[in-house]
Specification:
This protein has 528 residues and is of the alpha/beta class. It has helices at 17-22, 35-48, 78-92, 120-124, 130-147, 177-194, 224-229, 233-241, 266-276, 291-294, 302-310, 321-331, 334-352, 366-377, 385-393, 408-417, 424-429, 447-450, 454-466, 499-509, and strands at residues 25-26, 28-30, 52-56, 98-101, 151-152, 200-203, 245-248, 282-285, 315-316, 379-382, 397-401, 421-422, 434-439, 468-473, 490-493.
């Protein structure tokens, strides 16, 4: 048994008030940190009795660097490094740490060379696929638990009803409140089976925004009635069925609180979440270094104090642990500190209990599971279905726009059907009018046109305008909004570029698999 899987003894006896306050802090830790930075974190954990840590890949990829100004260095041994650091940080702690991570689609969200599962938007395309989502939640939970992580800060239960949303999008199960609730419930139940803690986010709902809260403060100008009808619905239903924690996003809701973002709003945390919705579990903040709130509190520790005063229990990505502790100790009552401590302590008791400390290896299921999800999620958006049959039966052009990604879909069309791959330039100058275009956007995030350069995008626009084009999209469906599609355009949404999804796409192209999925969001392209 490796060190980070050792059994822990948990005792509240003898803890000082300072040690209890330390339990509220969750600083960020990074796989690619230097030895000096690791030692500094060990010191912080020891001296300030830090209660939890949250793993990120590197400082270059963390929250406020979302805009991508710093180069991200890949680490082929990320997983081994994760195990090493968890062991070191646990050894530095006098009270066992809760180790957290954002593993919305698996450890691969933060850690290279680990199992990756489909994005929430792909799971959202499943019809009657809650059993598969349950299996995904369990598998991700098992991966977390085996590595020594007890707390997966997932799932996202935001209803993504704004196509302009720059940060939620593919991380949401969709734009229908009932489907979001049901799919999130299946995911949570799966994680619970593995013994992994959950956190539903981003309360009170980050879906209907056009601002990235990593960089600015989104404003949601809706009444309580409107929020209860839609944004708050999944939170309310999931709280009623039981969740471990709720993550509060950085949002301004002026009709609920004109002065304070949700992170520091007594009205939203203590009033709406605690009293009105009846949530008695742990409330955790979204990353406190995010510019939506961090720039509004220039005095070190003042943001941590304001969030705690509003009703927060765990301060995620706190960059000012010492100053935050000092302010909470000097401004908060013992009663208020004890209330949050008891909630955090109950989570620790839950995961460090003897009954929940089995860390037996389990068979890898991710490839088989990904294949099943691919089969049931692939979706057709046909504006001219007869044209699809015409294209397939013709001497069409097999056009690959893979932009550095492996395109086994087009390769199989070439090797098995004898239709060689061509690029966009050849397609545009060809006399052939029938095109099968396989498109692999470089990034899943919408920034900079999903990473598609303008020349390539212009060529795709021309192809769609001038030719009969059948598109297989291996990526975020919101890409369709920038392709200048026609009403008669035909698209097959594959959602992921995993090998299993590409194989299913080829089988669908050959007529061996029927599309069963349903696009879970409304695109601007197809709005009346």
């Amino acid at each position: 048994m490796i060190e980070n899987q050792k059994k822990y003894m948990l005792s509240e006896e003898g803890l000082t008030l300072e040690q209890k306050v330390g339990q509220f802090f969750m600083p960020a830790v990074f796989i690619n940190d230097t030895e000096e930075e690791v030692q500094e974190m060990e010191r912080l954990i020891k001296e300030y009795h830090v209660g939890s840590i949250c793993f990120f890949h590197s400082r270059a990829s963390a929250a406020t660097n979302f805009e991508g100004k710093k180069k991200i260095v890949h680490n082929e041994k990320s997983y081994e490094r994760l195990l090493e650091l968890i062991d070191r940080y646990q050894k530095a702690a006098s009270v066992p740490l809760l180790v957290a991570i954002d593993a919305e689609w698996g450890l691969a969200m933060r850690i290279e060379n680990t199992a990756q599962y489909p994005y929430a938007i792909t799971l959202g395309a499943l019809n009657n696929g809650n059993d598969l989502i349950h299996q995904v939640g369990e598998a991700i939970g098992n991966d977390c638990k085996l590595s020594g992580i007890q707390w997966n800060l997932a799932p996202v239960v935001d209803i993504n009803n704004n196509p302009e949303n720059p940060v939620i999008g593919y991380r949401s199960f969709g734009d229908d409140k009932n489907r979001v609730f049901q799919k999130a419930q299946a995911f949570i139940n799966g994680m619970a089976r593995s013994g992994t803690l959950n956190s539903i986010k981003h309360f009170p709902g980050h879906g209907d925004t056009a601002t990235d809260s990593h960089l600015g403060l989104p404003v949601i100008d809706k009444s309580m009635e409107e929020l209860m009808e839609n944004e708050l619905y999944p939170f309310k239903k999931l709280i009623e069925s039981g969740v471990d924690s709720v993550m509060v996003g950085h949002l301004l809701l002026p009709r609920l609180d004109t002065d304070n973002p949700s992170t520091t709003s007594v009205k939203i945390i203590s009033g709406l979440l605690r009293k009105q919705l009846g949530f008695n579990g742990v409330v955790i903040s979204d990353a406190l270094n995010m510019h939506a709130v961090s720039k509004k509190f220039p005095v070190k520790g003042s943001l941590e104090q304001a969030a705690f005063d509003a009703g927060m229990d765990v301060l995620c990505f706190s960059e000012h642990v010492k100053e935050g502790m000092d302010k909470i100790l000097s401004h908060s009552s013992k009663k208020r500190i004890q209330e949050s401590f008891e909630r955090v302590w109950s989570l620790k008791q839950k995961v460090f209990s003897v009954q929940n400390q089995s860390n037996q290896p389990y068979p890898s299921v991710h490839s088989k599971l990904n294949r099943e999800i691919a089969e049931q999620s692939i979706s057709e958006l046909y504006g001219d279905a007869p044209m699809v049959a015409k294209i397939k039966s013709s001497d069409f052009l097999n056009v690959s726009v893979s932009m550095g990604k492996a395109n086994s879909f087009s390769e199989q069309i070439s090797s098995q059907l004898g239709i060689k791959m061509v690029d966009l330039d050849n397609a545009l100058t060809s006399n052939s009018h029938n095109i099968v275009l396989s498109l692999f956007p470089p990034t899943i995030k919408p920034k900079n046109q999903f990473g598609i350069d303008q020349n390539t995008l212009d060529s795709i626009h021309r192809l769609i305008k001038e030719k009969n084009t059948l598109i297989y999209l291996f990526g975020n469906p919101y890409v369709l909004d920038i392709l200048q599609l026609k009403e008669s355009s035909n698209v097959v949404l594959v959602y992921q570029d995993f090998e299993e999804f590409q194989q299913v796409a080829f089988e669908h192209f050959c007529g061996k698999i029927k599309a069963q999925g349903k696009l879970p969001i409304q695109l601007k392209t197809f709005q009346p």
